[in-house]
Write a structure and sequence with these properties.
mainly alpha, 6 helices, 190 residues
């Protein structure tokens, strides 16, 4: 009886070690496989075909010569990305490491960023609708990829702020040259 109990314990111990070993081995194989897989490649937004109907930015800026709708949509994408980045900070300050002051500050910034993005997207839509005589839904489909790609290039808050630094001046020039398309005032940015 004593031998069978000892044998049973030994078999149980060997089985536990084998199971643990196979689990560790599976984790190791999975990790090695992930390392060998090619990294996700970011695909650039499709090239924008030139259209003679599009009004272009004439103001001296990095956007000079581009269609207004494209420049405004790209700025909108950058501000939308800022909204996402600010949201991450606010959620962290609210849930992970509670800090009401940081939460309040970044919640205000994320709301401002989404308001600015909305104004820029609306203006881009109005340009496409007027210049190309298309519906709003079609306009959104045209600028969406370009806006998303512009926002995706910014990985940090500082990168996004750097990319957006010319956007308020672009919108001001748009309001001066095309008040119908850039009709809503740009919300304040802190």
């Amino acid at each position: 009886m004593m031998k069978s109990r000892t044998t049973a314990k030994a078999i149980l111990l060997v089985s536990a070690i084998a199971v643990a070993g196979s689990g560790a081995q599976a984790q190791y194989r999975h990790r090695i496989q992930r390392e060998r897989e090619p990294k996700q490649v970011e695909h650039p937004a499709p090239a924008v075909p030139a259209d003679k109907r599009d009004r272009v930015v004439a103001a001296p800026s990095p956007f000079a010569g581009r269609p207004y709708w494209l420049a405004l949509a790209q700025c909108g994408g950058i501000y939308f990305k800022l909204n996402e980045l600010y949201t991450d900070v606010a959620v962290h300050a609210r849930v992970v490491k509670p800090d009401p002051k940081v939460d309040t500050e970044y919640t205000k910034k994320l709301n401002e960023a989404i308001d600015v993005a909305t104004s820029l997207y609306d203006a881009a839509s109005r340009f496409l609708m007027a210049d190309r005589n298309i519906e709003r839904d079609d306009a959104i489909l045209i600028y969406d990829g370009q806006a998303r790609a512009a926002g995706d290039r910014a990985k940090t808050i500082n990168e996004a702020l750097g990319a957006a630094r010319f956007c308020p001046a672009l919108y001001a020039a748009c309001q001066a040259a095309h008040p119908k398309e850039c009709s809503s005032p740009l919300p304040p940015i802190s």
